[in-house]
Amino acid sequence: MIKIKNLTKKFGEKPVVKDVSVHIQKGKITSFIGPNGAGKSTLLSAVSRLIKHDIGEIFIEDKEIKKWKNNDLSKKIAILRQSNFLNVRLTVRELISFGRFPYSQGRLTEEDWQHVEEAIEFMDLHDLQDSFLDELSGGQRQRAFIAMVIAQDTEYILLDEPLNNLDMKHAVQIMKILRRLVDELGKTVIIVLHDINFASFYSDYIVALKDGKIIKQGPTDEIIDQVNLKEIYDMDIPIRTIDQCKVCVYFA
Amino acid sequence: MKLRYLVIALIVLSIVSLFIGASSIRIFDIFSMTELQTQIFIQSRIPRLISIVIAGASMAIAGLIMQQLTRNKFVSPTTAGTMDSARLGILVSLLIFTSASPMQQALTAFVFALLGTFVFMKILDNIKFKDAIFIPLVGIMFGNIIGSITTFFAYRHDLIQSITAWLQGDFSMIMSGRYELLYLSVPILFIAYFFANKFTIAGMGEEFAINLGLNHKQVVNIGLIIVALVTAVVVLTVGVIPFLGLIIPNIVSIYQGDNLKKNLPHTALLGAVFVLFCDILGRVVIYPYEIPIGLTVGVIGSGVFIYLLLRRRQYA
To answer: What's the CA angle centered on B17, arms B15 and B22, to 5 degrees?
Structure first.
């Protein structure tokens, strides 16, 4: 379990995350939602030790994040950020094999390759495995990066806006994959999402942030509610139920 | 391109290189050489060949590592101030120790090359505008500033002539007893190979590296130390060879991708083959005189560089 206690992170003088406490449950998809600048990505970066927090504690399996060895932590938690390393020409297979770095330091064993094969299989990347990343479409590339994270074989998988720049078909495809990661492989997934409907359809638990603070958290069904959404987004968002799923109609 | 072809090219060009020169030694003389011929062969031809191969391979690899670590295809020892800093180091060693041994010179050149490269990396960190072309331009400006400092002090101390000797790469002065320092870069290149995967990961960005449990800063520092050492040694023995670290890794990247471990042998071989070819060309064009390697590589290299720039625009 990941426990965040009274976490504060400042950039310069300005606090971006203020006194945040949250428990992340194992084997679930937890979505961080909220308006721009709410501190979602900062929180995710702190949990994945990409940035150091100022005040408070983050416990990963009852051990404070600063006490973890970097290499051990990279077998426990994986983070995928929206980055622009597109100028690096690697093949899909090479990229995925880097996911085994924490275990093999670059000299992959038989077992490591086994994991790579499984990741390729799981993400259905057989036909693309020898293509260069810069030759792929956005959705294919995202799948390749997720495959790398699967090969990394961590319990926790953190993703920062994984649906950015994806069309509907590929966005749905990625969300279904994340669901499968939880349901079939027993992973714990934490995502920062912008589209409230993807959060509503696919997550088990929602943490809503605003101005660096958590203003709502709970099971998806409780959070997706017109009063709550008004408070989070300052918008009147009607909610319709279609096939037992709540759809937020925020367009008008 | 297969590794095999590069090896064949290297062997063929090596043989050609051994038998070209002002005093003629033909290939079938090899078993019946006169004393003079043997002496030329051992004192001059073989050292020249070895130094070309090592220098070519080293500079190409230094460029490859720099490009990977800065995540910019146009950064290399020539476009990041590394070479100019090494030259300043040589000048300083000449000023401080009146008769500096090659080892002292190498060490000073290395320290300066390393410092210069670190300063460039610091500048890089503080640049907001990370355009692929802009960064090497900053590096070239930075290198020229250091170059002008070097020239200023060289002028004040009547060392202009010695220091220009290191400006223009030249293999014609290579003789046994004057190039052995180059051997230093051979073990360094093996160390580079050992770190290849880490350099590739570091090249994917700091966050990517942290995620995989890699100490990003440490790996970058190791890379820069390798680059500075290799550059210092090459500048000291051969002189500045421009563009080499820039174009060779780019050509390899086009047909091979950016997996460092896979690329290192190709880059080393292509670097050696390219310098060997340019050297032979320089020795043939105005035979029996010769054109220094810095010039031939500069002319051919800048042509290739322009092509790479234009190609990039096409694909951008």
So the answer is: 130
Q: Is the pTM of this model over 0.90?
A: no
Residue by residue, pLDDT tens for chain B (316 residues) are 678 999 999 999 999 988 887 777 777 777 777 888 888 888 888 999 999 999 999 999 999 999 999 888 889 998 899 999 999 998 998 888 777 788 888 899 999 999 999 999 999 888 877 777 888 889 999 999 999 999 999 999 888 887 777 777 778 777 777 788 899 999 999 999 999 999 999 988 888 899 999 999 999 999 999 999 999 999 888 888 888 999 999 999 888 888 898 999 999 999 999 999 999 999 888 877 888 888 899 899 889 888 887 887 665 4
Question: How far apart are the C-alpha atoms of A29 and A188, rounded to whole Å?
Answer: 6
Q: Compute the distance between CA of residue A76 and CA of residue A62 in angstroms, rounded to an integer.
A: 13
What phi and psi, each to the nearest 5 degrees, are found at residue A69? -80, 140
Residue B158 and residue B148: Cα distance in Å, rounded? 15
What pLDDT shows up at residue A106?
80
Q: Is B194 on the interface with A (CB under 8 A)?
A: no
* CB-nearest partner of A88 from B197, B203, B211: B203
Select the residue of A74, A87, A88 nearest B213 (Cβ to Cβ).
A74
Of A48, A83, A106, the CB nearest to B205: A83
**What residues in B contact A89, CB-CB < 8 Å?**
253, 257-258
Mutate to test the interface with A, among B212, B217, B266 (most CBs of A within 10 A): B212
Residues 6+ apart with CB under 8 A from A188: A2, A24, A25, A26, A27, A28, A30, A155, A156, A157, A182
Is the CB of A101 less than 8 angstroms away from the CB of B261?
no
Cross-chain residue pair A89–B253, CB shorter than 8 Å = yes
Residue with tokens 């100019």: B84
ipTM of predicted complex: 0.86
Size of interface A-B (CB pairs under 8 A): 69
Q: Strand A213-219 and strand A63-64: pairing?
A: unpaired
